[in-house]
Design brief:
Radius of gyration: 20 Å
Helix content: 40-55%
Number of strands: 4
Order of helices and strands: HHHHEEEE
Strand order of the largest sheet: 1-2-3-4
């Protein structure tokens, strides 16, 4: 179970209740405006990342090797989209867990990422064999 979905609203209610107890309506207004500002910052980041990704081809990355080097376990899909500045090519079925996406560069090297519950679990780098010179 994802405790963050439960913990964040509970934390918000606790902050508002504490502000009410300490400062009355002025405290509630201050805490509520802080929570709204935090939500707007996250929404703005989301729209900027997806706006940049909308201008690029699906599944394209400048360098798959550099993407492979920058990936870390448990980063979110949104973070990976921000790094690649492109939506990944979906390899798994819609709504199926784990979600699998691939990003490919101009040299046909690719990184395949597996996300479970929106977090990166594992990834693999594929590099094509160099053509043998004869």
């Amino acid at each position: 179970m994802n405790f963050q979905k439960i913990l964040m609203p509970v934390l918000g209610v606790v902050l508002v209740a504490g502000a009410w107890r300490a400062y009355g309506w002025a405290g509630v207004a201050l805490v509520a405006s802080g929570i709204v500002m935090w939500m707007l910052l996250h929404f703005t980041r989301l729209t900027k990342v997806l706006g940049k990704a909308a201008d690029r081809p699906i599944g394209y990355v400048a360098s798959a090797v550099m993407l492979n080097a920058r990936l870390k376990p448990s980063v979110s899909l949104l973070h990976v989209i921000a790094m690649t500045q492109a939506l990944g090519e979906r390899l798994s079925a819609e709504g199926e867990e784990p979600e699998i996406y691939r990003w490919t560069d101009g040299g046909q090297s690719s990184v395949t990422c597996e996300f479970a519950k929106g977090k990166l679990v594992k990834w693999t780098l594929f590099r094509p064999q160099a053509a043998e010179e004869s």
